[in-house]
């Protein structure tokens, strides 16, 4: 995990090879980040590969469980990757709605994610 300190927020960028397969794994990372950075304004960038296919199959509810943790702990999240491979209309709608908000974003590149955090 790489920590990037921007003017208004501290952002943790998870390594691409980090795998999140259970909800408690992301909670552990969130708690560690908040504790180690001693900062209330923190965010996270996760590559889509780290979340696996289960996350992008909305029927599994894994995405909802993970994103609910970010909402509960008032932490923003950027998920980075190419989402065009997913054909599900409901997933496309879900991504579009998240991107309209101010806490969860699906963006194409790490640079786009950091730019988003710079403007929050």
Looking at this protein, list some descriptive labels.
single chain; 120 residues; alpha/beta; Transcription Regulator spoIIAA; 5-stranded mixed sheet; 5 helices; 5 strands; 48% helix; globular
Give structural notes.
With 120 residues, this protein is α/β, with parallel strands linked by helices. The protein has one domain: Transcription Regulator spoIIAA (2-Layer Sandwich). Helices cover 48% and strands 19% of the residues. It is built from five helices and five strands. A five-stranded mixed sheet has the order 1-2-3-4-5, sandwiched between helices. A hairpin with a 4-residue loop joins strand 1 and strand 2. Helix 1 runs parallel beside helix 3. 25% of the residues are buried.
The amount of helix comes to 40-55%
How many strands in all? Answer: 5
How many DSSP H or I helices?
5
CATH architectural designation: 2-Layer Sandwich
Low-confidence segments, given as residue ranges, are: none
Largest sheet: 5 strands, mixed
CATH overall fold name? Transcription Regulator spoIIAA
Number of domains: 1
Give the C-level CATH assignment. Alpha Beta
Beta-strand percentage range: 15-25%
Order of neighbouring strands in the sheet with most strands? 1-2-3-4-5
List the helices and strands in order.
EEHEHHEHEH
Q: Alpha-carbon distance between the termini?
A: 22 Å
Structural category: alpha/beta
Shape: globular
**Rg from alpha-carbon coordinates:** 13 Å
């Amino acid at each position: 995990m790489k920590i990037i300190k921007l003017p208004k927020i501290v952002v943790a960028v998870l390594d691409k090879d980090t795998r999140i397969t259970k909800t408690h794994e992301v909670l552990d990372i969130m708690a560690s980040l908040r504790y180690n950075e001693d900062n209330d304004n923190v965010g996270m960038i996760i590559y889509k590969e780290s979340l696996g296919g289960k996350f992008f199959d909305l029927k599994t509810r894994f995405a909802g469980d993970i994103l609910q943790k970010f909402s509960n702990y008032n932490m923003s999240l950027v998920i980075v990757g190419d989402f065009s491979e997913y054909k599900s209309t409901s997933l496309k709608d879900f991504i579009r709605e998240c991107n309209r908000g101010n806490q969860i974003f699906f963006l194409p590149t790490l640079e786009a994610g950091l730019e988003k955090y710079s403007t929050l």
